[in-house]
Amino acid sequence: MDPCLYVLRYSNRLDFGAKTHEVTMTALRILQRMKKDMLHSGRRPNGLIGAALLMAARWHEFNRSVINIVKIVNTTESTLKKRLLEFGDTPSSLLTLEEFMNVDLEEEQDPPAYKTIRKKDSERVQKLLEDEDENLHFAKLRRLIEKKLEETSKKRAKRKHEVEEPENGKRKAPFKYEIPDSVNINPNTSGVDDEVSIPT
């Protein structure tokens, strides 16, 4: 269904007075540009008409709120805002009113759904590249850790070899603690803990 067929009816209900024709023509041009940029594909006409009339009204200095437009064209605020955001992603939104009415941009845009999918694909590819960089970082870190562990293992083996085979070829006797003769250990005969007496 062509949304251009209903613009005049809704425009009259918004009470633009003497400028009704100008606002209607601007809204029609916006809708034609939306169709060229594939914004109308898979969209109900109410949201497109509401967005076109709101932009046309603001361009002609009529202070019409989103709620006013929503009530007239019978759509929702969220739908109207989505259509405005979609139009805002096109090069036409960067033109002034005079440029928009007189300049026909030859470049056509992709449908919003296609742009969304392409954006998600781009984000997915970016994430994969980041994950790949992260994996490379972890691989380098793992190699560094393995190298350090190997060096530490070699150092330990070298120390162990030096302890087992000293320079003079003789192994030192293990340390042995001997109790001096001056220390008396009395056997426990009374059920009390052993007493150790050290002479003064």
Automatic annotation (TrEMBL):
Q: Which GO terms describe its molecular function?
A: RNA polymerase III general transcription initiation factor activity; RNA polymerase III type 3 promoter sequence-specific DNA binding; TBP-class protein binding; zinc ion binding
* Alphabetical list of InterPro entries matching this protein: Cyclin-like_dom, Cyclin-like_sf, TFIIB, TFIIB_CS, TFIIB_cyclin
Q: Which CDD domains match?
A: CYCLIN_TFIIIB90_rpt2
> Where in this chain does the record put each Cyclin-like domain?
5-89
For region Disordered, the annotated ranges are 152-200
Task: Spell out the GO cellular component terms annotated for this protein, sorted alphabetically and separated by semicolons.
Answer: nucleus; transcription factor TFIIIB complex; transcription preinitiation complex
Superkingdom of the source species: Eukaryota
Transcription regulation among keywords: yes
The keyword Plastid is assigned to this record: no
Q: Where in the cell is it found?
A: Nucleus
SUPFAM superfamilies in the record, alphabetically? Cyclin-like (SSF47954)
**GO BP, one annotated term:** transcription preinitiation complex assembly
Q: Which UniProt keywords apply?
A: Metal-binding, Nucleus, Repeat, Transcription, Transcription regulation, Zinc, Zinc-finger
Where do Basic and acidic residues bias regions lie? 161-170
Family of this protein: Belongs to the TFIIB family.
| Name recorded for this polypeptide | General transcription factor TFIIB
Q: Which organism is it from?
A: Diaphorina citri
